[in-house]
Amino acid sequence: MAAMPNVPCSKRRDAAVARCSNHLARSSSTTDAAAGGTITTHAALGLGAAKRSLDRALAPYDGLWSRVLPMTLLFGVMSFCNCILDATKDTLVVTAFGGAEQIPWLTVWAVLPLSIVVLAVYSVASQRMFGRGLFYVSLAPFVAFFAVFTFVLYPNHASLHPHALITQLTATLPPGLTGLLAIIDNWTYTLFYAFAELWGDVVLSLLFWAYANDTTTLEDAALVYPLFGIGANIAQYVGGVLLCFVRTAVPVTATRSADAAWDIQLRILMSCVLVGSAVLCGIYEFTRKRNKADEMERVKSESRELEEKSSKPAVSLGESLGMLVRSPQIQCLTVMALAQGITANVFQVAWKGQMRDIFPLPADYSAFMGVVSTWQAVVTCICMLGAPYIFRKWGWAKTTALTPWVILWAGGAWMAASAWLPGVTSSMMGVPMLSILCMAGAAVYVFEKATKFSVFKPAEEMVYIGLDENAKTRGKASVDILGGQLGKSGGSVLIQGLLLCSTTGHLAGALPVLFTVHTIVAGMWIAAVSALAFHHGDLLDALTSVDDDDKDTADLVCDLQQPA
Q: Which residues form the signal peptide (predicted)?
């Protein structure tokens, strides 16, 4: 038996401890590796499941992104310009005129006549040109006017407005006519308000959606139409941020008055609109040339249609509208547009009157509108992300009725509160009641706009896809331009009558009447949606609620066509 080496006990003990430590370290490493492998495996499985869910969600959009993204960008630039114009026109009118009571006069005596002129021009132009030519003929007058206003009319508005004459007339005429005198006095602002108001009707509602209807199939509309608005709301968010930033970048200082600061701010904002107009023209050209084969086929089709139309006697505007009146679909869409215009006008005049009392300076008013536009963009974008699911879950009819129901309950509750709460208490928890109502009105405004642009507008546009060419062009122009403005004018005439009967020229005492009208008209809007659903809502429900494999789109489009 070999003898043990003569090693001290302390060294043997240290060696044993070292061997035990190495063994424990190797065991721990193995355990940690196994645990890490398990965690990695679970993470991989989770990521795989998420990826499969995302793939399933995006599967219906395969092959559509090349068309969806450019159209989304086009709609976004148009909406960016509309955001700036909408805030600027309200700022000019409400702060310069001294209140929101002038808006009804503007709607009836400026916007409505201009909308009739635009509709007549568009109706004549649509018989002589198509596509690209019609797009630029409709867009050019707006861009030209905004350029003239920014660089010629507004810098010289003090010398162009007949203040002395209007001051003399104001002293002799009833207080209810103050709004009419104000729009005559500030006639350059009046023209700007009319053109800016019609930008949304002509460029956003008519030109974009007419172009989208020409380039989108009926089976794709329920998928892509809600998504077009995502780019629009991102752009509107940017517009709202820009409105707030410009106020901060050009502040009122010891050497710069509030009016001087607003002059600079307005020129910056309108320059952005003019640049945006040039950009949207570039995007439009890009989308038209994206698919050359489709473009060539479209040009050939347009040429054939133009030859056919030139061989026929020209149809007057009255005859065209007469043919459209006999269409049950156009009838329902017109009632919906009228109701939408009346409810929007009644609500916004009352709300903007409160805003004027809280934000009397143009820069402050514009900045607050920027905040409202920012929140509107965020909420609308969230609603648009869920819109395809809502269409599939609820179907076309219930989804279309969502917006008038929101207007009926939310808008009606706000108008009722505005009519009666100020007479009960002047504040709540230390906050002035006027401020509470103004902020609540902003929330109602945001949610009404969100439901309108996320679900109602796409649902409305789906109806046009299956209609004939006359309904798609002149019918759509009549509904979008004239129908909406007639609705706003109807509300404006009512408000003018109430103002004329008022001894103060203010709307505060007329709010109970406006609440009643708002409620009745919102109910008519819901009834018109139900009537349209009765005519062919089941067909649109089939497109928006069933799987793609079960759709027979060709038959559905034929069923949507107008009778001969």
A: none
